[in-house]
Amino acid sequence: MSREPEYRPHRVVVLALDGLLPFELGIPHRIFGRPRDAHGRPLYEVVTCSVRPPGPVRTDADFSVMAEHGPEALATADTVVVPASYELGPVFEQGVLTEELAAALAHIRPGTRLTSICTGVFVLAAAGFLDGRRATTHWAETEHLQRLFPKIDVDPDVLFVDDGDVLTSAGVAAGIDLCLHIVRRDHGTAVATEVARRTVVPPHRDGGQAQYIQRPVPDPQQATTTAARAWALGRLHEPIQLRDMAARESMSVRTFTRRFREEVGVSPGQWLTQQRVERARQLLETTDRSVDRIARDAGFGTAQSMRQHLQTALGVTPTAYRRTFRAGAGA
Q1: Does the structure show a pLDDT above 60 at 218?
Q2: Contact at 8 Å (CB) between 54 and 68?
């Protein structure tokens, strides 16, 4: 009789550096601390470590946090998260690691997934983990990151970058988007959506969405595109024309397109594709409908069209995606 594989949650180790931002330190614990498997067991184990032996770590606030683990914990990580810090010193100013930080990072095993939130990317960059890769950080620091590390392909306009085993995010709330993206990548849309619901945040903001939108809060005296988006979400299975969305807000197509991009950060067409990909993912995970039926229900029209969009967005076919996450849901 075959034995069930030994249960072991994915271990996330968060590296707390002096000058850290408490909000960003809390993001991995909040997001990765929620997911459970079908037996109610945690899918992740989250621990915090310092570059020094266990003890207090300064924050940018009027309090410190107590790290219960030293740098040796990095050797046990399946994923390492480096949140932002305002006291990176030579890492931020010159692009070089301190001896203490270099010694800590040396504990990380080859193949460990590496992630950063905001300026935590400077640590990964200084360690050489980002050479030849695409990455991002807070929009205010992207030019400095590119000057300091010319071997990195810095994208200043996105919320996060998924480069396989190395992932980087823009500032603050984009760290939530990145962590939810990792949960979605590991365990599917249903698990990530439940975590987002419990955290009271949007379940999905695409990584390619602009991180800096010039008018994030529309002028109350001006019309917005909110009603058109809600209308479109209820009709993803139908053909949706740009002129129809504009008409919902009594705008010209040109004005609507400009206002939509200012509010959402992407074009109406890009947004519709993102929503249809998310709908397809949800249906693939939670229903037994055929791929052809899901393609119609998500608004792609044909299985071939949906296959092309999922391949572009996720790097897998609909069948492979369903096989992965339907199996994961029952594990």
Answers
A1: no
A2: yes
Whose CA is closest to 116, among 45, 169, 75, 77?
A: 169
- 38-85 per-position pLDDT tens digit: 889 999 999 999 999 999 999 999 999 999 999 999 999 999 999 999
Q: Which of 172, 153, 149, 151 is nearest to 161 (CA)?
A: 153
Q: Among all chains, which residue has been given the structure tokens 């990195």?
A: 152
Amino acid at 161: V
> Which range has the top average pLDDT, 20-24, 187-191, 197-201?
20-24
Q: Is the pLDDT of residue 173 over 80?
A: yes
CA angle 105-109-115, nearest 5°? Answer: 65
pTM, 2 dp: 0.76
pLDDT reading at 216 higher than 80: no
Q: Greatest CA separation found in the chain?
A: 70
- Distance, in Å, from the CA atom of 286 to the CA atom of 20, rounded to the nearest integer, reads 39
- Cβ atoms 119, 85 nearer than 8 A: yes
Strands 55-58 and 44-49: unpaired
What's the pLDDT score for residue 133?
A: 96
Per-residue pLDDT for 247 more than 80?
A: yes
